[in-house]
Structure formats: C-alpha cells, structure tokens
Amino acid sequence: MTRSPLWADWAWVDGRWQASVLLEVDARGFWSSVSAGVAPPAAARRLPGPVLPGLVNGHSHAFQRAFAGLTERRECASDDFWSWRERMYSVALRITQAQMQAIAAQLYIELLRGGYTQVCEFHYLHHAPDGAPYPDPNTMCGALADAASAAGIGLTLLPVLYERAGFTQAGPHAEQRRFVGTPMQVHQLMRSIPAGPRINAGLAIHSLRAASAGSIAALLRLVDGEALPIHIHVAEQMREVEDCLAATGARPIEWLCRNLAPDARWQLVHATHATPAEIDAVARSGAGIVLCPGTEANLGDGIPELPAWLAAGVALAIGSDSQVTRNWPEELRWLEYAQRLTRRQRNVAATPQQPATAQRLFEAALAGGARSAGRSRWGLTAGARADALVLDARAPALCGIAPAQRLDALVFASGEPAFAEVLVAGETVLQDGKHVHQDAIAARFAQAMEQLWDATPG
Fold this sequence. Notes:
By secondary structure, the protein is α/β, with parallel strands linked by helices. The protein folds into two domains: 6-53 and 381-438, Urease, subunit C, domain 1 (Roll), CATH 2.30.40; 55-372, TIM Barrel (Alpha-Beta Barrel), CATH 3.20.20. It is built from 14 helices and 17 strands. The chain has helices spanning 81-92, 97-113, 139-151, 183-191, 213-222, 238-248, 252-259, 276-285, 293-298, 306-311, 328-343, 357-372, 406-412, 438-453; strands at 6-13, 16-25, 31-35, 45-46, 51-52, 55-60, 116-123, 154-161, 199-201, 203-205, 230-234, 266-270, 288-291, 316-318, 388-391, 419-424, 427-431. The chain starts with 5 loop residues before the first strand and ends in a 5-residue tail after the last helix.
C-alpha cells in the first residue's frame, strides 16, 4: 500500500525540535525515512502542528479503569495500599470477558488522547470469576487484544505468573483465584498471542511475594535467551520490603539482583523503596524501571529516588497502572512535583548540563518506554513504527510558545493534553481528539459500568 509522505513545520527528532521535517511511511506502517530541513513535496500531507513521537505506557491494569475514583473515602481506621487492594478485588472477581473488552477499549482511547500509542498490559485476570479455567485459556487476553484493535493502540501483552498470597503462603487467598497459574501455563499463554506491527508479547512476574523462587526460575528457563520484555512489581510498599527481609534476609531489589540475574529485558515496576546499593545493582544489570507517579501518589506508596535513578543511567519508563491518571504529561508533572515537594527545590530532574526538566523526563520516558515494550526502535526515526502526536499549537497552553519551550508548557502548564491528531502505524486514530468509534465504545463502556456497579440515574 502506498502512503502519502507527511511533512511538519517542526518535529522532535534526535532529542530536539527540528524544522521542516519530512516523514515517510512504508507499507508495514513503519518510518522508512525521517529527514529535517526538507521543503514540503507536492505529494506530502502537511501535518497541522508540531509533531512529537508517541510514548509507551509501560504499566497498565486495564480492568482497574472500572475502579478509578471509587476508593476515595476512608472506610476503616487505617487506609493504605493494602486496604485499597481488598476493595480492588471486588472488581477483579466480577468483571466478565465482555466487560473487560468494553472497559479496556474505552481506556485505550483515553490513553491515545493522553499521548500514549503503545500500552504494556500487565495481565493477571486469567480465569473465570469462580476461578475455573476458561475452555479457551486465551479468553481474557483476547478481550484485551480486541479492545486494542478497536481503539487502534499498540499493545504489549504480559501474562503474569501469580501463585500465592505472600512470602510465607503456599497458595492464593480465595479473592486471588482468578490470577493463579503455573510457569508453563503462563508461558503457553504468551506463546498464543499473535505478533504483529501493533501487538507483541512478553512475560510478567507479579511480585516476589506472589511467586516462589522455584517457579520464577522455571519461567525464566522457558524463555532463556529470548529477546522479550520481563516485568515485575517490586518494592512498591514498605510492608513488602519488611516481609521480604523477614522471609529472605534481603530487600526485594537486593534479592532480585542477587538471585535472578536481571538483564536489559527486565522492567522493575515501581521500585519505590530502593537503597543506593540497590540502584547501583540495577544499573549494573542493565534492567530498567517503570514509575507510575499518579498511581503511586493515589495509593500512598512513597516517592522514588528519581535523581539517583537518573544519575545511575537506569532506563526509566512511565505507566498509568491503576488508571487514575491517563496521560503522560500529567505523569511527568507528578514525577517532578513530588520531588520538589519533598526536597523543597525546583527542576529536580534537570542538571546544569541538561537544564530542561520536561525534555530530560520526556527523553527518558521515550527511550525507557520502548524498552519496556520490547521495541528496539522507537520515536521519529527510520525503522520505528510510524507513531506520532500532532500538537495543537492553538491550544491556550501552547499558543505563542517558542519551539524550545513547547515541552515545558505541555508538561507544566497544560490542563489537559493538547494533541490535535494521533497516528499509530502511519494511520490517524484520533482527529481533533475524536475517535471514529468513540460513541459506540463509550456506550459499551457505560453499559459495563452500570452492570458492575448497578448505577441508576440521579
């Protein structure tokens, strides 16, 4: 299929704004060439604003979109991550295949509006609500893949190994019955996911507390030497750190680096509570981290050692996790503002050598996000998938802003993302913030929410 070349007055190429950029898309939906300083050819479609690459959402639980905003009341003397988790199970135990597809499709359109063009789905709702295996083990993975296809977003599906309730538990609690699986079952589920330009697969381990050392080792042997992303929740909560110390004599990241030999395939999700020695160990391993600032704030997880992670050169992605925030400018803003509040300083992520805070965070999330999704090339560069975000330069937050300050304004002065158009694999999936199927998807989402929560008008 022949695709018209695209041309932009300004585009983010090689880590900076460059003028007069010609972007050519091949038949597979990948950039065949990206060239700056080129006059617009007659055949080119002129994009209506400055162009950024799309970002990868490095960590998502799609089903939790149905739960976003519904836990903001204190119902017990102590409200923390663990009490939130108990309430989250009420969704996990009820949601059906059809509801999952409807909720995920709505979420994925919202993520596109928020500037994400690929999402890493950390997927552990494997079984039916009663815990029985589906006749087709791929049922819930298929619902997510169908949702991504309907929305047009890229998807990295990460089936999760989950087998027990905690470090000292032999099996799961009753409310975790939908999650469990053996290393072989998780591996087979991953193998059943068809690969394509918009979809790929990896593996995930829920956490050290939820999978035994033997099972983790067995899963890793099944993918030994394969180039695929491997994700794990780690050190999100201090109770997890304390429980790991009690059970193993080591902190979670310390134990992981010592016993599992993580490499560049690994993504440590949250990594909130890390010592300098653990950060150095992760840096030496080549693994990356995925931070989810909106969710980590909502759950009271804590604040990561961002300057130390950046200084160590550890790859850093961002994710929407529980879906309380669904756009990357807000995640980057939260990431920086949490540091400012605790340190009583400004522009914490920047340095005199890299003075632009938004640029440093965006570039980190761009490169780290690609790794989290197992994508070897990403961005406005030849060989990467042809994803792009076209900024609305007329948006109040961007109006009149010089190119050098556009990212600053987008991250720190925008009430909402200002994307006029979003492209995935060379195809426009959002135009003026609208999706061609948004009304039908929104109707199915509303029906699913009413079924889940018995909502009534008024």
